């Protein structure tokens, strides 16, 4: 590895915590700072406020090795480091603009505390032009002899595999106006084998939004294709496989279902659309991507209704609540919208999720959530699958068949082979695969 650097990461949310722990593992001296004292106190006791496989162990190892520490004294942490990474939240405001208040507070704090020059890294997802504004902000407030260049270094971590993604990135994007500052940040990652792309700051900022918007586009595209498949009797799994074999298309992000959720795609697509509007550009594809994603959830509820009939008083097991497997994150999770829509029509929900149960009970106290999936399945009129957890795939489906009142599965993640589920005695309905051919095969 290159030389060990002294780094402060501000913000111990998902990105800050994972980045801080991974940089410590790479050998750097890292302080994770957060103004929320309760959070810092928990972290100091080895408790991790988010669910991410491997993170607890990684934090513990690096704390024991004295490479990683936590503090709520942000000023002190800034003074004792040469590199400051900003990893605070950038939520969307009601009008669609990005709320930069947390970033701006951090910049003010950096300017007030920096007594020596430091390199500032923008990890938070921010609209194009923010790096330049941040530098102006710092120049205005900091002493004139202090140099505080801002480098854009977006993250591309997926929840659930964030540690793997950090150590095996497809690329490291560094956008800097001051080339030396860019090289300094590239050196932090010297121990990783990854392509480093140096760009101007604006392009780096846009790469993050463009990547997320493009991935969201792939998902909405395949979902629309699935809807067409249902109308013409084709199978979306085979269509996606056939498309993905073309190396120009690639096999990833072509999984049809109930659409995307989570903390990034919904927020970043809307922010990119608004950003384009602000510069008088109508990003039509992105508008459609967002609409299709919303409609996909509605279509799924209509599908359940079509299969179950009148929903009033019907017991429905909803399996999988987190926005995707291996996380307890419920932000913009399709399952929550789907549950609300079913409840509005009088359905009685029995939910199950291997990780998010507690959080759902806090957010939706009227939804009974079971930690034993078989309890959620007892005597139900239909099974609805909304997240493709391995724990759901590996259920004893023969046993499930004997527990339910009606053997109906409406699968929003295409987890199973329709023929196999039919052979187990289920009426199995999924997304884009209701082909006449499959029905014939079973007979
Ligand atoms: C995403 C990006 O992948 C990551 O690079 C970025 O930094 C943050 O946003 P994440 O939100 O953790 O990561 O999850 P991801 O695995 O990308 O899935 C996002 C959503 O898309 C999930 O709801 C998932 O179920 C859905 N999805 C994904 C599909 O519906 N179909 C697919 O083929 C792929």
UniProtKB/TrEMBL annotation:
Read off the InterPro entries from this record.
6-PGluconate_DH-like_C_sf (IPR008927), NAD(P)-bd_dom_sf (IPR036291), UDP-Glc/GDP-Man (IPR017476), UDP-Glc/GDP-Man_DH_C (IPR014027), UDP-Glc/GDP-Man_DH_C_sf (IPR036220), UDP-Glc/GDP-Man_DH_dimer (IPR014026), UDP-Glc/GDP-Man_DH_N (IPR001732), UDPglc_DH_bac (IPR028357)
Q: Does Isomerase appear among the keywords?
A: no
Q: Where is the UDP-glucose/GDP-mannose dehydrogenase C-terminal domain?
A: 317-418
Q: Which PROSITE patterns match?
A: PROKAR_LIPOPROTEIN (PS51257)
Q: Which family does it belong to?
A: Belongs to the UDP-glucose/GDP-mannose dehydrogenase family.
Its name, as the record gives it, is: UDP-glucose 6-dehydrogenase
- Class of the enzyme per the UniProt entry, highest EC level: oxidoreductase
The record lists the catalysed reaction(s) as:
UDP-alpha-D-glucose + 2 NAD(+) + H2O = UDP-alpha-D-glucuronate + 2 NADH + 3 H(+)
Q: What is its EC number?
A: 1.1.1.22
């Amino acid at each position: 590895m290159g030389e060990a650097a002294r780094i402060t990461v501000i913000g111990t949310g998902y990105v800050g915590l994972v980045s801080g722990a991974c940089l410590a593992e790479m050998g750097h001296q890292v302080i994770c700072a957060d103004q929320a004292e309760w959070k810092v106190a928990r972290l100091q006791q080895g408790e991790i406020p988010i669910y991410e496989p491997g993170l607890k162990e990684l934090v513990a190892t690096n704390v024991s090795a004295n490479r990683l520490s936590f503090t709520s004294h942000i000023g002190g942490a800034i003074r004792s480091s040469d590199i400051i990474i900003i990893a605070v939240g950038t939520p969307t405001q009601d009008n669609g603009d990005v709320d930069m208040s947390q970033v701006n507070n951090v910049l003010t704090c950096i300017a007030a505390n920096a007594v020596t020059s430091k390199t500032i890294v923008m990890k938070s997802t921010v609209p194009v032009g923010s790096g330049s504004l941040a530098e102006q902000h710092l120049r205005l407030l900091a002493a004139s002899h202090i140099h505080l260049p801002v480098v854009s270094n977006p993250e591309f971590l997926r929840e659930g595999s964030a540690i793997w993604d950090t150590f095996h990135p497809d690329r490291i994007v560094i956008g800097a106006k001051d080339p030396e500052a860019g090289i300094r940040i590239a050196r932090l990652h010297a121990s990783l084998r990854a392509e480093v792309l140096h760009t101007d700051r604006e392009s780096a900022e846009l790469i993050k939004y463009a990547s997320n918007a493009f991935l969201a586009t792939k998902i909405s595209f395949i979902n629309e294709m699935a809807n067409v498949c249902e109308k013409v009797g084709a199978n979306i799994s085979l269509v996606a496989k056939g498309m993905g074999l073309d190396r120009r298309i690639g096999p990833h992000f072509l999984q049809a279902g109930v659409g995307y959720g989570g903390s990034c795609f919904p927020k970043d697509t809307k922010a990119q659309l608004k950003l384009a509007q602000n510069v008088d550009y109508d990003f039509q594809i992105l508008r459609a991507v967002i609409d299709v994603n919303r409609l996909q959830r509605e279509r799924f509820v209509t599908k359940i209704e079509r299969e179950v009939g009148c929903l009033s008083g019907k017991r429905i097991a909803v399996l999988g609540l987190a926005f995707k497997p291996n996380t307890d994150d419920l932000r913009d999770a399709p399952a929550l919208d789907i549950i609300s829509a079913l409840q509005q029509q009088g359905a009685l929900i029995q939910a199950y999720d291997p990780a998010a149960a507690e959080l759902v009970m806090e957010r939706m106290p009227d939804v009974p959530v079971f930690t034993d999936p078989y309890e959620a399945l007892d005597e139900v009129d239909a099974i609805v699958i909304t997240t493709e957890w391995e724990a759901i795939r590996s259920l004893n489906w023969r046993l499930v068949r004997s527990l339910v009142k009606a053997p109906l599965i409406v699968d929003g993640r295409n987890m199973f082979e329709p023929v196999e589920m039919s052979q187990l005695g289920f009426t199995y309905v999924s997304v884009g695969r209701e082909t006449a051919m499959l029905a014939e095969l079973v007979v």
